[in-house]
Amino acid sequence: MHTASRVEDGDRSPRPIGQPARVPTRRLLPEPLRDRAFRGTDVVRRGLLTPAQLRGPACRRLYRDVYVDARAPDSHRLRARAAARLLLPGAVVSGLSAAVLWGVGLADERDDVELVLPPGTHPRRIPGIRVRRVPLDPADVRVLDRVRVSSPAVATVRAAALLEPDEAVVAIDRMVAAGVVDLRALRARAATRGAAPARVRRACTRADGLAESPQETRLRLLMVDGGLPTPVAQYVVRHEGRDVARVDFAWPELRIAVEYDGAWHAEPGQFARDRRRLDRLQAAGWTVVFVTAADLHHPVQLLATLREALHR
Question: Where is the DUF559 domain (predicted)?
Fold first, then answer.
């Protein structure tokens, strides 16, 4: 049999012609370093890796002297934890980064990690990290898996202060919907003298915590800011003593519902379920207006469609 040679992790045994070559597998790190971030100087000192191995394909550099197992997916959570635990020990993760650690994805791997250090600490400029030097009340600091992080309320206020007005409301709605903060308590905190800037207080009053997606919040704000009557969010339609459906927004007295039609509607079998649900709503005398992501890019046209439905 004719053969062709291959090289795979040092294996030079022949393989039959026509058999596809196997892709070389990335060498694994020692067990203590797998799927985690670590200090390069520390692991070299302990003899776990050599400087050459740090620069090899098994490791990925996050910050100066901070590396991670190259198999670990990049994420803001990974970067925030590495920065707070290894690069600036004792720092508190705050703002959008803290929201991520609380389970709400307000930032991704492209965004800078925000950390808080006490006033007077030596200034350091580190690419990919935003360091604030402000006092934090110890009562507003929590520890999550060995990382110090600002409390949910403080994280939400800070996140809202960083974002544009509508996106601040989106962020608050997401934190509330995730069960991370209580909207009433957040409003009370924001109203406390000196606790939050005016734009955050306004964002708290505009949030309702009921949206099941960021797009639902954006749609609600568009309708309200566009001069439409304020709809009831997450309204349960009842007919002949039975629950028919829960709709995203409703004007119950007019029997008009607005539904945000997200990508999840394309899931297998979802079309048939949506069709049956729509039939039940129509049988109960309701008109349903569907809104897509594309519609949100044409607010004037969308508002005109909704006004027409309201005035039929």
Answer: 247-290
Place of tokens 């409390």: 151
In tens, the pLDDT along 216-263 reads 999 999 999 999 999 999 999 999 889 999 999 999 999 999 999 865
Range of weakest confidence among 239-248, 267-276, 294-303: 267-276
Beta bridge partners of residue 11, listed in sequence order:
8
- pTM of the predicted model, to two decimals? 0.84
Domain ranges of the chain: 26-72, 75-209, 222-310
Query: In the chain, where does DSSP find H-type helix?
Result: 40-45, 51-54, 76-82, 95-101, 152-162, 165-177, 183-191, 198-206, 214-225, 270-283, 293-296, 299-310
- DSSP-derived letter for residue 17 is T
Look up the CATH architecture of domain 222-310: 3-Layer(aba) Sandwich (3.40)
DSSP state of 207: -
How far, in Å, CA of 247 to CA of 237, rounded? Answer: 7
- For the packed helices 152-162 and 198-206, what is the interaxial angle rounded to 10 degrees? 110
Could you tell me the two tokens for 59? 């490791």
pLDDT band at 193 (very low <50, low <70, confident <90, very high): confident
CB atoms within 10 A of CB 32: 10
218-245 b/e with 16+ CB inside 10 Å = b? Answer: bbbbbbeeeebeebbbebebeeeeeebb
210 within 8 A of 221, measured Cβ to Cβ: no
Q: pLDDT at position 88, please? A: 93
Instruction: State the burial class of residue 261 (Cβ atoms within 10 Å of its Cβ: 0-12, 13-18, 19+).
Output: middle
Residues 6+ apart with CB under 8 A from 42: none
